[in-house]
Amino acid sequence: MGSLGPYQRKHKVAVVGSGNWGTAIAKIVAENTAANSDVFQEKVEMWVFEEDVEIPKTSQHYDPAQTSPQKLTEVINRIHENVKYLPGIPLPANLHASPSLEETVKDSTILVFNLPHQFIIKTCEQLKGKILPYARGISCIKGVDVSEEGINLFSETIGKTLGIYCGALSGANIANEVAQEKWSETSVAYDAPTLDSKAPTPQRSPNASQTDLVQFEHKDTSGQFSRVKLQALPSEYPPVDHAVLKTLFHRHYFHVRVVNDVAGVSISGALKNIVALAAGWVDGMGWGDNAKAAVMRVGLMEMVRFGEKFFGATIDTRTFTEESAGVADLITSCSGGRNFRCAKLSVERNQPIGEVEKSELNGQKLQGTLTSAEVNKFLKKQGIEDQFPLFTAVNRILEGKMSVADIPSHIER
Amino acid sequence: MGSLGPYQRKHKVAVVGSGNWGTAIAKIVAENTAANSDVFQEKVEMWVFEEDVEIPKTSQHYDPAQTSPQKLTEVINRIHENVKYLPGIPLPANLHASPSLEETVKDSTILVFNLPHQFIIKTCEQLKGKILPYARGISCIKGVDVSEEGINLFSETIGKTLGIYCGALSGANIANEVAQEKWSETSVAYDAPTLDSKAPTPQRSPNASQTDLVQFEHKDTSGQFSRVKLQALPSEYPPVDHAVLKTLFHRHYFHVRVVNDVAGVSISGALKNIVALAAGWVDGMGWGDNAKAAVMRVGLMEMVRFGEKFFGATIDTRTFTEESAGVADLITSCSGGRNFRCAKLSVERNQPIGEVEKSELNGQKLQGTLTSAEVNKFLKKQGIEDQFPLFTAVNRILEGKMSVADIPSHIER
Predict the structure, then answer these.
(1) Lowest-confidence pick of A9-13, A135-139, B140-144
(2) A133 touches B at CB < 8 Å
(3) The domain that contains B198 carries what CATH number?
(4) Are B324 and B234 part of one and the same domain?
(5) Nearest CA in chain B to A173
(6) Are residues B351 and B399 in the same domain?
(7) Is B279 part of the contact surface with chain A (CB cutoff 8 Å)?
(8) Are residues B333 and B283 located together in one domain of the fold?
(9) pLDDT for residue B55
(10) Catalytic option among B272, B344, B380, B401
(11) Do both B253 and B270 map to the same domain?
């Protein structure tokens, strides 16, 4: 893998976040930097929210002499395992855990974000001014931030807050299965910032401190373009393009397809959770495989319609129907995902889904119910609920205004 | 439902075939002719391959005084139940079973075909000259006939043999679930023959015996058009169009979408069985939901590619990704269909799939293995096996030349 060209500098990669999925992605990234040391510095920094942990007796690293709790970062760096969030999975030795956000991102040209939704803004605020101004990001955070006013992709929120370009990674990926190196696929979306043809062509900067600017066309949810100024990556680095990103994320057990469509990849990951609720209810009713496939089909169509309507020309509808982040993630989520399971149980037990959520998820929250409410508010404000009959039916059922038995007649076209 | 216009004559509908799926469709059709007597004659004839049957003791129609076997047609017409092929399902009283092909189709303007593959040609040969020359057909027979030379849709085979136009019906439809009126969806494909603009505009025939001709553009597998002469439907009948077909097939539990794309609807129904084999193997390996969704995604892409390649401009790729006959039927088939189940068992038992087929299917044959071999022969002749890595992998595994464990690396792009 030495074909990416002769550049003076290598990319330094940092992973911001170290939960279940964060650690699984950090493992992949560190395996790939080690295998491609012509492009990447081998060592990968991973930011860990520091906490005290105890190594369980079942672990091969359990030491009876060690009686006091230890720092999670120290454990990860000593035994190369995230005993708290990804137990039992050996991590590469070149993956280094750090409790300091600032240390983690220092000199890094590629930042991989993998945090719970509620920490994104706060973490980005802390990172302001600490990152290289020409760094590039990839957000592995599923979902989007929908309000009455509009839809914000998390990759956009990160990019805007930090003043960098940020793409997205999403797919049919259950973290533990990926960590165990069971084969899966994913989608990386990255629409590389380009030189603005209307501005005087800037020279590629020969050193990192220079501030030649590029402009790139940034899409908002109205389908309009706006221009955002970004700093060019110095020319001594290999350009961050689809080939470099494939090299960074692709493994023999984790197949990557890189596309341009950040919006499609991101909104798929949010909307499929609404569909999974409907599929779970229908399955819970005992209506059989035909009916479940029918709601999934209608859901997929509404995902496509939503993308076309609110991201206009910037979206590629094939993202929904042909990429892992689209149809494949929808299928996985409607097979055994938590939204599907809780919805199914709520019908079988004749319990509100909120109660199932409490009893089954140990305090974690269902994404589907949140997304459904947000998307419905947005659609209602636009006055187009009727164009999305399945999404609307899901929200009405959650609000207790409709019953699951009414789904077929409601979505009939 | 009296809005289809004032025509002097009503359509007479016949169903050719009375197996499990044939009887379920005949039930729907008869329910709809009864409910729409402005467009259709109420009575629907169904051709039944005559045989002797005994009514089981568990049936409410069991009569201990009746000791000798009875004719299936007589039983159906007396107790309104197909005790042999769709037991336990009440059939409408206006559905009449006939042992005579000729009597069944006499004066019928709409012929619904629902036969096992191996009887299509023979039955159509027997029907030659017995049908109205301006009748129209709908084939509910899943699959296509692929050979080294090309791909024939069953609807085309029927149409050519009888000299009529024939559309297709296919979807995520498990016959017993449809018969029980569990909600499902289906796709009806019908590209209505049109007047040839290059020929002198024919007058609509005022009576049935007149032979004004229309020409319509018939598609062969090379994507070329050829012209076929067809007889125009006399103008005293409502035209057979999407509205009439929806009225004939749509029920509150059986949602119909009518499209033009006969080829897409037909080849989806064949190719999805190849994908279901791969999904079954992967599931049998215990690789998890991510992996299963990945082969389904790749399979759906190859279905689209196959359609684009061999049916060119005449196919609408949205049939695969948005219609019940496409993605929904794929999902159902990869959930619990027989190709999926037998493939899964073959991995779990470490048995060739042919042995599983024998032990599990009571003498019935898997469609997926047949279709895989046929499609592979065709792709090989065209020299493009490598453009369809999943289809090719499935065939190699069936031939014992590749192992299931090699699927991920084989389909890696």
Answers:
(1) B140-144
(2) no
(3) 3.40.50.720
(4) no
(5) B290
(6) yes
(7) no
(8) yes
(9) 87
(10) B272
(11) no
**By the CB < 8 Å criterion, does B27 face chain A?**
no
For residue B324, list chain A residues with Cβ-Cβ distance below 8 A: 293-294, 297
Best residue in A177, A183, A300, A409 to probe B by mutation, most B CBs within 10 Å? A183
Query: Best interface-test mutation with B: which of A253, A297, A335, A339 has the largest number of B CBs within 10 A?
Result: A297
Do A314 and A230 reside in the same domain of the chain?
A: no
| Domain end position, chosen among A260, A279, A300 | A260
Q: How many domains are contained in chain A?
A: 2
Domain of B361, CATH number, reads 1.10.1040.10
- The yes-or-no verdict on residue B66 having pLDDT over 90 is no
A277 Cβ contact list (under 8 Å, min separation 6): A339, A340, A343, A353, A368, A369, A372, A394, A398
**Boundary (domain end) residue, out of A212, A241, A260:** A260
Whether residue B80 sits in one domain with residue B221:
yes
Q: What is the 3-state secondary structure (H, E, C) of chain A?
A: CCCCCCCCCCECEEEECCCHHHHHHHHHHHHHHHHCCCCECCCEEEECCCCEECCCCCCCCCCCCCCCCEEHHHHHHHHCCCCCCCCCCCCCCCEEEECCHHHHHCCCCEEEECCCHHHHHHHHHHHCCCCCCCCEEEECCCCEEECCCCEEEHHHHHHHHHCCEEEEEECCCCHHHHHCCCCEEEEEECCCCCCCCCCCCCCCCCCCCCCCEEEEEEECCCCCEEEEEEECCCCCCCCCCHHHHHHHHCECCEEEEEECCHHHHHHHHHHHHHHHHHHHHHHHCCCHHHHHHHHHHHHHHHHHHHHHHHHHHHCCCHHHHHCHHHHHHHHHHHHHCHHHHHHHHHHHCCCCHHHHHHHHCCCCCCHHHHHHHHHHHHHHHHCCHHHCHHHHHHHHHHCCCCCHHHHHHHHCC
Query: pLDDT, tens digit, for every residue of A199-231?
Result: 444 433 333 333 445 544 444 455 454 556 788
Look at residue B209 in the predicted model and tell me its pLDDT.
Answer: 33
- B410 close to A (CB below 8 A): no
In the predicted model, what is the mean pLDDT of residues B262-277? 95
Q: pLDDT tens digits for A78-134?
A: 999 999 999 999 999 999 999 999 999 999 999 999 998 889 999 999 999 999 999
The average pLDDT across A274-290 equals 96
Cα of A315 to nearest chain B Cα, Å: 16
Q: Are residues B65 and B206 in the same domain?
A: yes
The string of pLDDT tens digits covering residues B168-183 is 999 999 899 999 999 9
Q: Is B272 a catalytic residue?
A: yes
Q: B142 in a domain, yes or no? A: yes
- B277 at A interface, C-beta within 8 A: no
Kindly tell me if the per-residue pLDDT of B85 is higher than 80.
yes
Nearest CA in chain A to B291: A184
